[in-house]
């Protein structure tokens, strides 16, 4: 906290100065206390083990070890899916046409306020449509704006991540989509009642849609007020101390990829078969034909439906079309791999946490504790509150729902509480807790090139505000 905010020259600071002082304090605390996300995930593993021994019904050492091992390796398929979503999204965002669009949008930004007014709605809409797209657009748009305008870079990246937080209330919500999809393995409602819940009762319901819009509007206004004073701004730099090694490595990676694309650099002749094949669009057209053909065949037979795999396929096809040649797309994916590398470490660790919570019964104990005191009116809110805790330990919405859903849905049916409201209480709590759980922030800060600790200091404010907005909506909006 700076002297202008607390010094003797200002014995009674203006409310806006006090507000900025609180945010600066949060940033300082996160920088001093929060370790690297991988180290944090190891610490959370230890916490979960201790909680399991204390409260879980099946917490024996053999069960914990077996559950940890099973969870660690069972998540690998999902981990690769998530990494592919980010890598293929990165390849789209890096395409020349998309880059020109980002530059055009950033060109009209001259102040921090305009930066927030641009970033929040664009990222929120992208995230509402697809969570992977929102992550990529937020990180790259923040970089493009920060190259042109003197804004605090951690503040800007935190704003884009805050706008992304609405994704679990949108069209790519794992919980909403699975309950609307006939035969889906996670459609617990259909398994219990034989019915599906259409999106009109979840994503488009007033108790979900209204708070989602409110979070974006309110947080935009709050972030504008939270921007540091000019003398305390830490602006973006291609070789900033906190991201200098990444920037240098990125430059080396770009140079290497350019060498790959240059036939002379690889020793291949410009007229060789290899060079012509790399620059030919034939390979791109073959993959486009296969992918578009599959989507057309599937959607004509079963109707339009998006899941993780079709999202990856669509991102792949769009990226190929925008990059045009196979070698250009391969180079983009190679550069994307640098940004997703840290996730390779974290996903297995969180898979182990999920395995321990499920195998020992710890997650069911948490959920049942809240359900035991619920009424038809309070169950959705208690489902929301228990989800806040579970999300901090299981940050994947699909995995989280597989753990909590089997307990809250039977409770909703037996109490005759609102099933859609109870289910979306779990999803909306994901939005909130993600602002304190660094799991999904890792790819954002990696692409942006900034330390996560400074970003989480700002998103802690988003956590507090969205906690109230979503909770009030579940309680008060019909």
UniProtKB/TrEMBL annotation:
The chain crosses the membrane at residues 38-56, 68-93, 113-141, 203-224, 281-300, 306-323, 344-364, 370-394, 457-477. The keyword Transferase does not apply. It comes from the Bacteria. GO terms for cellular component: plasma membrane. Keywords: Membrane, Transmembrane, Transmembrane helix. InterPro entries: SCFA_transpt_AtoE. Pfam families: SCFA_trans. This is Short-chain fatty acids transporter.
